[in-house]
Write a structure and sequence with these properties.
Strands 1, 2, 3, 4, 5 and 6 form a 6-stranded antiparallel β-sheet that branches. With 73 residues, the protein is of the alpha+beta class. It is 23% helix and 45% strand. It has one domain (2-72). Strand 1 (2-3) and strand 2 form a beta hairpin.
Amino acid sequence: MLFLGFRMIWFFDKAGEKLRYEITRDRVGGCYKVVITRPDGTESVEEVDEPTELIERSVQLMNSLRGDGWTVA
């Protein structure tokens, strides 16, 4: 995991493929974004407003990734 100011990044691995899981905070709007970048370069982006929502959603997403065979690199 890397922490870069308003950005936290995790890298996941599955059968030699890499997935990037990133949390950022919009300084202007104040919302949090969860960005998942898949090995083929496609991204999914979710926005949440509250820190508690961010934690709950992040746990759900990371558990789903682990359930699909991804491991933290």
